[in-house]
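REQUEST FORM: STRUCTURE PREDICTION
Request ID: SP-0412
Submitted by: Lab K.M.
Chain count: 1
Length (residues): 374
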Amino acid sequence: MTTDNFSRRRFLQLSSIGIASTRNLSLTELTLFVGTYTSSTSEGIYVYRMDQLSGELRRVGSAKSENPSFLAIDPRKRFLYAVNETSTGAVSAFRINRQTFALEFLNQQPSQGADPCHLVVDDRGKSLLLANYTGGNVAVLPIQHDGSLGPASDVKQHEGSGPREQQKGPHAHCIKLDRSNRHAFAADLGSDKVMIYRFNAAAGKLEPAKQPFAALHQGAGPRHLTLHPNGKYLYVINELDSSLTTFKYDPAKGTLTAFESISTLPRDFSGTSYCADVHVSRSGRFLYGSNRGHNSIVVFGIDPRSGRLTLVEHVSTGGNWPRNFTIDPSGRFLLVANQRSDNVVTFRIDSQSGRLTPAGQVTQIPVPVCLQFL
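STATUS: Completed
RESULT:
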């Protein structure tokens, strides 16, 4: 081998090592977007970078938006969408700068109902589905090629009420799609129902399903829901009576059958508390839920054969009024947004037991209510 050829080969080896090292360095941090309720102290959406080794959060930017209380990102991670939870109701679209992680405002559309509180982007990245709490309805907005939103292509008004003060009318609180992108589920707190729709992705329409809804026990107040990774079970966290209801899901028919409902609170707790959010670990072995008032995350083990839940522990969130929380993509950290104490607290997850341990990272963020990793 000539000296020139050897030098060239060595240069390529060193270059590849350098590229790999650079990639490894970039992979040590994740981008986290934080939605808030805007006030004299909050600007809107905050952008943080999280160290994957320590769980530490470092602020890198923010974007102004009115009450962006829930966020969603498209499947290709190019655009971020935020509800604007106001009496008029709107949804805002942003482009994500993948170098700086800054958010560029694209446009805003009416949400078709008062106080939108939840939204999700379909698997094709062509439609945005959202729930309007006070409006008591769900809507679909088309996503344009440039990421901006078009006017609503469909709106479905809910009906019904429940026995509690907060249930004088329908209150759509969450909407999710199943793994096939064929069925949509909407938790309605006011009517004690999970509404079921067939989702026509090509037309951006919510169509009647074989089973129009699944009823929960009276006064439950279903707030958020999540599917098990195996697609066989749907878990609904109920705000008003602090419970979790488990449904068996038939993806072919789009039907739900309830078979278990258990409390999210310790037996000896006698105070006031309201559930907020629910997530299943990526492994499918554990379920986590947030209790506002008891100020805890409840941890359950999931039986892989039956989907039934077994209590593991309750862990203090290190703050007041834990609303939304999230699990990072690696499954090693759980981050909680404590709305009333203005902080986000990071916990380590034990992959074998599901238990949570404080990571020693507490980040002060004004009125945090939604956490979304890129």
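NOTES: The CA atoms of residues 198 and 276 lie 26 Å apart.
Reviewed by: T.R.
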